[in-house]
Design a protein that fits this description.
109 residues; alpha+beta; Alpha-Beta Plaits; 4-stranded antiparallel beta sheet; 2 helices; 6 strands; elongated; binds ligand 2BA
């Protein structure tokens, strides 16, 4: 068994959750925040049998879009009057960032 920790864009959440339910996966949805952009994203914890992993990856690949976002990084402008400037950089976010962990034990009480 594996535990998949999937970080997705919140705009993809509705579609991904609908498809996971339709495909019979059991999962937990957690609101999260990206450390770099400091914007809300969504983390989904999904416990799956090894044989289900490929179909889970297919759901994520089909329903998570890659997006370009511009972020302003503060930088110090040197000169007679040093000042903080915002330098915009473009980053590619997602589709889905997925960590797949071996599950030592799964128990329900
Ligand atoms: P954020 O940390 O908000 O990062 C958003 C996007 O900014 C990243 O997209 C990446 O393209 C860029 N980025 C992140 N850190 C950067 C840095 N130090 N310098 C330059 N660019 C940087 P993704 O890689 O697709 O990541 C999407 C979200 O997935 C991340 O949101 C974060 O919440 C999570 N994530 C990604 N890699 C992770 C990791 N190794 N561990 C934990 N969470 C991760």
């Amino acid at each position: 068994m594996k535990l998949c920790v999937c970080i997705i864009h919140s705009r993809d959440k509705g579609r991904v959750v609908d498809e996971l339910v339709r495909a019979g996966f059991k999962f937990t949805v957690i609101g999260s925040t990206g450390g770099f952009l400091r914007e809300g994203n969504t983390t989904i914890l999904i416990g799956v049998e090894d044989a289900e992993l490929d179909s889970l990856k297919a759901v994520l690949e089909t329903n998570c879009q890659t997006r370009e976002q511009v972020v302003n990084i503060p930088s110090m402008e040197v000169g007679p009057q040093p000042a903080f400037m915002a330098s915009p950089i473009k980053v590619t976010v997602g589709g889905a960032v997925v960590f797949i962990l071996d599950v030592h034990e799964f128990t329900r009480f």
